[in-house]
Design goal:
This protein is mainly α. Among the domains are: 177 residues; 125 residues; 115 residues, Leucine-rich Repeat Variant (Alpha Horseshoe); 78 residues, no CATH class; 94 residues, no CATH class. 69% of the residues lie in helices and 0% in strands. The C terminus is likely disordered. This is Condensin complex subunit 1.
């Protein structure tokens, strides 16, 4: 052989001759290639692989052909098939030569080296060429489809469906060949680096195009097995990380294949140092630029995939990854690292028998996860809560972290991002379902139990101290006894024979030993110890000891018997158990406190405008109630208010939740009905008066849907009539209330059972319990078919027996001194008279009731009844006529009586939401109910404002009246309560246009108010709004109106809060405006330079003169206009003119602005601005700055 094949750095290098290096002599054209390939095929099957020396140029021509048409691709595939067989023959030829113990002859070695390099060069390049052409055709196909939308897709690639399979076979062939000791072909036996790189490169390129699936995973196995051999045998460890990082940077889908392959290297080849290098390079790359780029996402995907398939390989590097990447800017990377930490804890670090270093690593991961619950990014906060939720479900959260995580989750219930709140609720739900403290006791009960156990622990501690003292005294006595006993012990140790058999038990012998020791008969005691030890079966063990060891053994036994004989006990174990019990109860109390803290926040979420908040809170309360968790009952009752929501999804969620709680049983038939009735009764018993109407609404729905079927109705009647064994009076009354609710939906439930209702309500039980009497009357009233369109139905005559019974019983109740629920009894009785009787008797037949006192009382009662009824009726029917008197409705909102305030809130809410009365400034009185002491009033009011916020611009239009009236000093509203009200109401304003206008109107209020409290209130309201570029510009444009007010510290802090909150995650344009606002506010804080007193006095005189002139000009200019307006309007209340200075904040200013602005309004607004500007001259009358910044 007279040539040497050198691997070219570029394929074109083979076209140039150089020394004895092989070069291509003939570059065949496309037309010549098919015939040349036929010749290659003939030579392949007729001879050995060395035919390649003569036909290398043919394959080279196929590779270098630039065409990608069908003919060129066909030639490539033919060349691949031929080279596959050629390499297969090469392997068969190399096997015996490389397996021999003696090295091959130089000429043979050189020939096989050239053959190996030439064959593999051609095979690798054919594969590379096919891959490149297919990728190019895919790109052309995609471009063509984009340009010709709707046309039939090209089917070019369908001609090569089996290429992935063929490429996989080639890689397996390459792996098999590399398992030979190919280095023997070189002298010295070290393979060329470019040869190894050439073989590995085809693997790297395959990773770039391969999408790993279950059916092609073996291909990835082959690729990384090749890498494993290259690293282990051919020094490829340096190039491997560099090339893998390049692929990870540019190819998203490769992360899964590479992660899987890294694990193959670790498990099959024991290669882990390469992974450490990869981690180091990834950290360096991400630290240099960690923004949310594709690179960050690709690296994150790789790390996550690797942690999934090889957590043990990942754990040693997690601390480094956390230290370096958890502080980076990319939230994607932080999520990735935290997810890996959570998976590592769940998968590998849950055992309590972990070594100390692994426990430290676990606690470090958990600390990181706990800390990032408060991450600056909402994406990370939500992700971390989700990770904790998964760990809780897998029981992977250590007890020491339970309370910390729960408290952090409770805090996140107030997060501004709904996704974070959602995950927080789900985590709290997981804690309720899997809490380690079985928190089914109330906080009071837990505290009582804790105090009892602490007392026990203290007693045990005192007992333990006494025992220790006794033990010390016995220890001293024992030391004195040892010399007396030792001679006897030495004697029995020398005895090798077992003691004689005895009929006594071990316990009998111990009792005798104790007696002997107390009587100081030590020789007999020692002898009995030997017998007892023999009876216990310890003779063989004792005899295996040396004599001195046996002496020590007997001394230890005798010491324990002496302590036992003297009544000395060891309570250490019991004391340790008691300490654990106390600690458990202490943790239970903290857990209960955390849950209790969460409940009010979760109840607030029920009233949220965000549906996900409502759904998650409903789900949590439902789950907690079903698990019997204390504290969830209030939430279940609170959910009833959502029955009135205008959002159907919320109503359905509530209905489904109650059906799940009340109607879900594992029984059928009558047993199911009994359980449902029990559930309904227990829930109804816990309701307050204000919840009844909502419960009635749900019951109606359940009756219509037949969730409450005939069998349940039958069980309710059995309970009501006390026919069901074991039914109590209270359960009977609850059954009656449920039947009344059902009869509202289906009147036949009452009309078909009138005789039963009458016999109970007007019988002995009705006489003994007025609640049964009034309930039965209401039940009878529901016998009237409400769905009927006719106004006429059968009524009882005044002489009818049922009417007489009702009258008789009511008369007795009326004069009873301590009748309970008298209002209810009276109301139902009057309703019975007016709805079921022909004509009421209380006032129509005075000759029947001649008593003057009775007639007066009856007349007064009738008048009051008619007044109350007419007020409601007239308001519904004639709202415009009644409107001047609606102030009387609002006045009851301040009444001391809670029931009256509750009724007023319900009535006004209903009238306003149904647009029966207009919303005016008096709604501020209703807003005060947001901070009412009564939770029900508070909740109804919050729900009301949330509802009107969804109705066009109603809330937005009345906001100025609310702000104006509540901040007025005459309202006497505490500042903290004012802030609670405004925080809730302004949180319902979300439209950018409304916020923009609101900012301007609030700024215009600064110059027309004169009290510092009002300035603080306005600034606080501004701080509650969300800001964009337009709203920040509004603040800058109106700075003149509040530049002197920022001297007050609270006002300044409000604007500072606006700046800091808006700066977070702001775009560059917005940040520029924020910087300008901050600069100008800070300029307002600077102290003015002192000026000459004469100049200051002249300046003040000029200002005063100018102000008077302007005032005179304005007054003269508007006199005629005002007189004309007065003539047109007639006489008006003089009080209206006194509110002119509030015009800048009137409700009309907050309404949606029309396309064209009224000129008169524009002039009025200009006047306000001018007067505001003139207020600068009055700065001497306004306090400069309370607790001033920069003031000396």
């Amino acid at each position: 052989m007279d040539f040497q094949f050198n691997l070219p750095s570029s394929n074109t290098d083979l076209l140039n001759s150089s020394g004895d290096s092989y070069y291509v002599k003939h570059l065949y054209s496309s037309s010549e290639i098919p015939d040349k390939l036929k010749v290659c095929k003939q030579m392949l099957f007729q001879s050995d692989p060395f035919y390649i020396f003569d036909h290398f140029d043919t394959y080279y021509a196929v590779i270098e052909n630039k065409s990608t048409d069908a003919a060129a691709m066909k030639n490539l595939f033919r060349a691949f098939d031929l080279m596959y067989i050629t390499v297969d023959k090469l392997g068969s030829s190399l096997a015996p030569i490389l397996a021999a113990t003696e090295p091959p002859a130089p000429q043979q070695r050189k020939g096989y080296l050239n053959l190996t390099k030439m064959c593999l060069f051609l095979s690798v390049n054919v594969v590379r060429k096919i891959d490149g052409n297919i990728v190019r055709l895919q790109q052309q196909q995609q471009n063509s489809q984009q340009k010709r939308k709707g046309n039939k897709q090209l089917d070019t690639l369908e001609e090569y469906p089996d290429w992935d399979v063929k490429r996989g076979k080639f890689l397996v062939q390459l792996y098999n060949l590399m398992q030979f000791p190919l280095q023997k072909l070189w002298n010295p036996p070290v393979a060329e680096e470019n040869f190894v790189n050439m073989l590995c490169e085809v693997c790297y390129r395959t990773l770039e195009v391969l999408h790993m699936r279950n059916d092609n995973r073996h291909v990835v196995d082959s690729i990384f097995q090749i890498f494993g051999i290259a690293i282990k045998r051919y020094n490829h460890a340096i190039n491997f990380p560099v090339r893998i990082l390049q692929i990870l940077r540019s190819t998203e889908h490769a992360s899964r294949s590479i992660a899987y392959g890294i694990n193959v290297l670790h498990e099959e080849f024991g290669i882990s140092t390469v992974f450490a290098v990869l981690i180091k390079e990834i950290i360096e790359s991400l630290s240099m630029g960690s923004a949310d780029t594709l690179v960050s996402r690709y690296f994150s995907n790789f790390l996550t995939e690797l942690a999934t398939v090889a957590p043990k390989l990942m754990i040693p590097h997690l601390s480094t990854l956390g230290d370096e990447l958890l502080g980076c800017e990319s939230h994607v990377l932080r999520n990735c690292i935290l997810q890996i930490m959570g998976d590592a804890v769940v998968g590998e670090l849950t055992s309590e028998e972990l070594p100390e270093d692994m426990k430290e690593a676990r606690d470090e991961f958990l600390d990181n996860l706990l800390m990032h619950i408060n991450d600056i990014s909402a994406h990370v906060r939500a992700k971390v809560l989700q990770i904790w939720n998964h760990m809780k479900e897998e029981q992977a959260v250590p007890l020491s972290f339970q309370l910390k995580v729960l408290c952090a989750a409770v805090e996140r219930l107030e997060d501004k991002t709904c996704s974070v709140r959602k995950q927080a609720v789900q985590l709290i739900k997981a804690f309720l379902e899997r809490n380690p403290f079985a928190a089914k006791l109330t906080l009071v009960e837990l505290q009582k139990k804790y105090n009892e156990e602490v007392e026990k622990m203290e007693k045990l501690s005192a007992l333990l101290a006494a025992e220790r003292k006794q033990a010390e005294e016995l220890e001293e006595k024992w030391n004195l006894v040892i010399p007396k006993m030792l001679p006897f012990i030495e004697d029995i140790v020398k005895q090798t024979q077992d003691p004689p058999e005895t009929q006594e038990t071990y316990e009998d012998l111990v009792q005798r030993i104790n007696t002997m020791l107390l009587e100081e008969k030590y020789q007999e005691a020692v002898s009995l110890v030997r017998k007892a030890d023999h009876v216990a079966g310890n003779s063989e063990l004792r005899l295996s000891l040396k004599e001195e060891e046996q002496c020590a053994y007997y001394l230890a036994l005798l010491k324990s018997y002496i302590f036992l004989a003297n009544g000395c006990k060891d309570s250490n174990e019991e004391f340790g158990t008691q300490i654990k019990t106390v600690k458990f109860l202490q943790d239970s109390i903290e857990f209960s406190k955390a849950i209790s803290k969460a409940m009010p926040k979760l109840q607030e979420m029920l009233l949220s405008k965000t549906n996900s908040d409502v759904f998650e809170a409903v789900d949590l309360f439902t789950t907690g109630y079903m698990f019997g968790i204390k504290g969830t009952e209030n939430g279940m009752r609170q959910m009833l208010y959502l029955v009135w929501s205008s959002d159907k999804e919320k109503r359905d969620a509530v209905s489904d939740a109650y059906k799940k709680v009340l109607f879900t049983t594992d029984q059928t038939g009558r047993t199911h009905a009994l359980h449902v009735v029990q559930n309904l009764s227990r829930f109804l018993e816990s309701l307050e008066y204000g919840h009844y109407t909502a419960m009635e609404c749900l019951v109606k729905e359940w009756v219509h849907n037949e969730d409450i079927d005939g069998l349940i109705i039958q069980v309710l009647f059995e309970r009501f009539t006390l026919k069901l064994e074991g039914t109590t009076e209270n359960e009977s009354r609850l059954a009656l209330q449920l039947l009344i609710m059902c009869s509202y939906a289906k009147s036949s439930i009452a009309s078909a059972n009138i005789s039963i209702i009458e016999s109970i309500g007007l019988g002995l039980r009705g006489k003994q319990d007025p609640r049964i009497f009034s309930g039965c009357l209401e039940f009878l009233l529901n016998s009237i078919d409400q769905s009927s369109t006719t106004k006429y139905y059968k009524r009882y005559d005044a002489e009818y027996s049922i009417v007489q019974k009702v009258t008789e019983m009511y008369s007795k109740f009326f004069f009873h001194p301590r009748i309970p629920d008298f209002d209810q009894v009276t109301m139902k009785t009057l309703q019975f008279y007016y709805r079921l009787c022909q004509t009421p008797d209380i006032c129509k037949y005075p000759f029947k009731y001649p008593d003057s006192a009775l007639q007066q009382s009856a007349s007064l009662a009738l008048i009051r009844f008619m007044c109350v009824s007419s007020r409601i009726y007239l308001t519904f029917r004639f709202p415009n006529i009644i409107e001047p008197w609606t102030g009387h409705f609002y006045s009851t909102l301040h009444d001391e009586n809670t029931e009256l305030r509750l009724t007023a809130v319900k009535m006004l809410s209903h009238l306003i939401l149904h647009e029966m009365i207009r919303v005016k400034g008096q709604i501020a009185d209703l807003a005060i109910c947001i901070v009412d002491d009564n939770d029900e009033i508070k909740n109804i009011t919050q729900q009301f404002f949330k509802e009107i916020a969804n109705k066009s611009n109603i809330l937005y239009n009345v906001l100025p009246d609310i702000i104006s009236k509540l901040s007025d000093s005459s309202s006497n509203l505490e500042e903290e309560k004012y802030r609670i009200i405004m925080r809730y109401i302004l949180g319902l304003i979300h439209k950018d246009r409304q916020v923009e206008t609101l900012v301007e109107k609030l700024c215009l209020r600064f110059p027309v108010t004169r009290e510092e409290r009002q300035w603080r209130d306005i600034a606080y309201c501004l701080s509650l709004l969300s800001y964009n570029e337009k709203t920040i510009k509004k603040l800058i444009d109106n700075l003149q109106h509040f530049k002197d007010k920022v001297q007050i510290d609270e006002v300044y802090q409000s604007f500072k809060l606006i700046i800091s909150n808006t700066s977070k995650l702001a775009k560059p344009e917005l940040k520029t405006l924020i910087g300008e606002l901050e600069t100008r506010i800070n300029d307002c804080l600077k102290i003015r330079e002192p000026i000459n007193e004469d100049e200051e006095r002249n300046s003040e005189n000029d200002k005063e003169t100018g102000r008077k002139a302007r005032y005179s000009q304005k007054k003269s200019g508007k006199t005629s206009t005002r007189s004309n307006n007065r003539r047109r309007r007639g006489k008006q209340d003089s009080s209206q003119s006194s509110s002119a200075h509030e015009s800048s904040c009137s409700s009309s200013d907050f309404e949606d602005e029309p396309p064209k602005i009224n000129k008169n309004k524009q002039k009025a607004r200009s006047k306000v601005i001018q007067e505001t500007a003139s207020s600068d001259e009055e700065e001497s009358q306004i306090p400069r700055r309370k607790r001033g910044r920069n003031n000396k």
